[in-house]
Amino acid sequence: MFSYSVVGAQLYVGDMLFVMITFLVLMWLVKIVAWKPITKMMQDRSDKIVNDIDSAKESRTKAAELAQKRQAELDKTRDDANTIINTAKQNGQRQQEQIVEDARNEASNLKSSAEKDIEQERQEALANSRKDVASLSVEIASKIISKELNEDDQKGLVDSYIEGLGKQK
Questions:
Q1: Spans of biased composition, class Polar residues (predicted)?
Q2: At how many degrees (to 10) do helices 36-146 and 151-168 cross?
Q3: What domain range is 24 assigned to?
């Protein structure tokens, strides 16, 4: 099958040289035309994956920080709400105590004022009664002096003065 003739060996070596040179030229063309774009595409894809991973880590970190901030703000808001509620309760309690105290003071003042008014009215009634009794006594005495009365006339006179007193009030 194979012959080792000088002419055949030269052709065989020549074919091999041609195939080798063609293969090298083809590899060089593949390197220029296809290899660089493929390696560039693979490098770009690798860079994009690395960037996506870094971006995902960064996003996860930011999300965790945001969650912590939100939780801290929520806790602060709860504390503020509790403080406001407690302050409102204390203010309500103070207002309730103040209202009760004011009502007690007002009731005491009204009672005192009513007692003073009652005492004043009583004093006025006593003064009026004394004046009326004095005036009645003077009138009775003047009538008795001016006219001698028997017992029936005296009773009638007293009764008429008493009725007159009831009508004056």
A1: 87-98
A2: 160
A3: 6-168
pLDDT in tens, 97-135: 999 999 999 999 999 999 999 989 888 887 787 777 767
Q: Tokens for 40, please give them.
A: 């560039």
131 part of a folded domain: yes
Question: Is 1 domain-assigned?
Answer: no
In a domain, 128, yes or no: yes
> 138: phi > 0 → left, psi -120 to 50 → alpha, else beta; which?
alpha
Task: Name the domain count of the chain.
Answer: 1
Distance CA 38, CA 55 (A): 25
Give the integer Cα–Cα distance in Å for 69 and 43: 38
pLDDT tens by residue, 24-62: 999 888 888 888 788 888 999 999 999 999 999 999 999
Nearest to 21 by CA among 13, 2, 38: 13
Tell me if 140 sits within 8 A of 161, measured CB to CB.
Answer: yes
